[in-house]
Amino acid sequence: MESEDDLADYNYEITNKYLHDSANKYFEENDYKYAILLYDNLLEFIVNDVLKSKIYSNKSACYLMLKDFVNSLNNALLSIKYNNLNARAWGRVGWSFKGLKNKEDSLKSFKIANKFDPLNINYKKEIYFYNSNKIDKLSLFELFKSSEYVINKLKNKNFRNKLLSNLLTPNNLMKDSEVLHLIDYVIHKID
Hints:
mainly alpha
């Protein structure tokens, strides 16, 4: 027979899982304000620092979607307070600073996020293309070689054609043959 303490612990875990799953569901349904409310309720019960970090990071994502960059930044920084190795929180600090037009701190944050999650294509994209709309060959190669996701996307002919049409604009410095060679090289390097 279970003790009252065991039953209370079980109910506590079930409640936390329900709140967390519900908040995530509302986030996926773009109801960010209600997701924030549920994340706030969940924070009242969480004692584990890593979980607190995750919840604050999720709240930061909600505020980013609402374009409330100040609250997004505050929650991302709280997330880092509880787990300074949380790459997503560092990325959200970067996007918050970007929204606040603070390029220097944004770039620093993306570099830290990239350090903790070097396979995340989004951090690399922000780092490599932060100050320029032009794509140079080295940046493109570094971006592609670091992401299995992009490599798999490059194997898709429709994606390659779309990429080529975006790269082969009059403002771009790359020639058709260079882009094709680069894409073939990256694909064959992975295969």
